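Internal ticket - ligand job 362, glycine:
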Amino acid sequence: MNKPRHTIKIDLGTRSYPIHIGAGLLAQRAIVEAALPAGPLLVVTNQTIAPLYLALVQTALGGRSCAVCVLPDGESYKTQATLGLVYDALAAAKVSRDGAVIALGGGVIGDIAGFAAATWARGIDVLQLPTTLLAQVDSSVGGKTAVNHPAGKNLIGAFHQPVGVIADLSTLSTLPERELRAGLAEVIKYGLIHDATFLDWIDASLSALLTRNEDALAHAIQRSCQIKAEIVSLDERETGPRALLNFGHTFAHAIEAAAGYGEWLHGEAVATGMLLAAQMSERLGFLSTPEVTRLRELLIRAGLPTEAPRMGVARALELMALDKKVLAGRVRLVLLKEVGAAVVTADYDPAVLQSVLQQAVA
Ligand code: NAD
Ligand code: GLY
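stdout (structure tokens):
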């Protein structure tokens, strides 16, 4: 039997839960079953993932009856209409308060299924089974759930912690190359905001990560989840330090919106956004030029984009003003005080931001 290589606890009192990381875990009945309540179950997945991993999960559930809801694949389906399909499936399967949703997929599935669980019968359990690197290091952990609204990404959502997260490394073998690279952007983020030693390790281990060496991936996911667990345990609802997890994201959201959703993967936009935030940190005297150059080179070696679309400064500022971190009309930015230490602040000279954007997007 495959045991988890690592188990990390998210410490949130009665809402605490484990994150198990290891190869072949989706086939382990004891691990999958342990997190689930006794009532009716609904697996939510998509058309790409179902043929790859649904049978494995059904087998792990033994003889337990379990309804299935297979959604279309893609960010463009992260909508209220798709959410309606999940509610229909929950109703058809008579999932009550003693039941649970099982989210099998990447961040899109995790966010939709998580929000369905947060709202169905005023809140039922959700077990996250993330199958992309991005979902294993970020979206399945921490309880943010949402669907998009035409006015903006993730505008309809809730904080709803899962009852467990099972990150099966084996699922990453089928992940498209571009998706793997996008997930690495979030891994690099954790090093930049919280752990310079981890960043050095990522730098040294990049080719092992890109060739999907299991030991390297296991360590990258473990350290990323540890950092996220530490931050979420301090600030579940993002009233303070959790905002640091959004390093690069204010720029990234502008890039994703300006390019048209779906053109850039989220992790790709985060990569370029992190470089812009690092340039801003350099202009404010926190980072040195060699540190910013090193980040640019690391992102390029990881196959991630470093040039933002030329959307124009005014458009960039307009899009950045839609960020959820805006407070009293001021765009708060996550900046690096040094490599491995981030800060969220509105205390910067707007002319510096103008000048960074002028160079990047004008
Ligand atoms: P995704 O869910 O769209 O998955 C990427 C693609 O890979 C999809 O086509 C999917 O079907 C496919 N796929 C997934 N697993 C696979 C596998 N093992 N083998 C082959 N193909 C596989 O994208 P993502 O990057 O996982 O997630 C992005 C979403 O996550 C965005 O909607 C973003 O807003 C959200 N997100 C949420 C949080 C959070 O805290 N809740 C954090 C970051 C991102
Ligand atoms: N992905 C950022 C967060 O979970 O807070």
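Auto-summary: The first strand starts at residue 6 and ends at 10. The pocket of nicotinamide-adenine-dinucleotide (ligand 1) is lined by residues 46, 48-49, 52, 73, 75, 78, 105-109, 111, 131-132, 134-135, 138-139, 142, 144, 154, 171, 174-175, 179, 182, 266 (CB under 6 Å).
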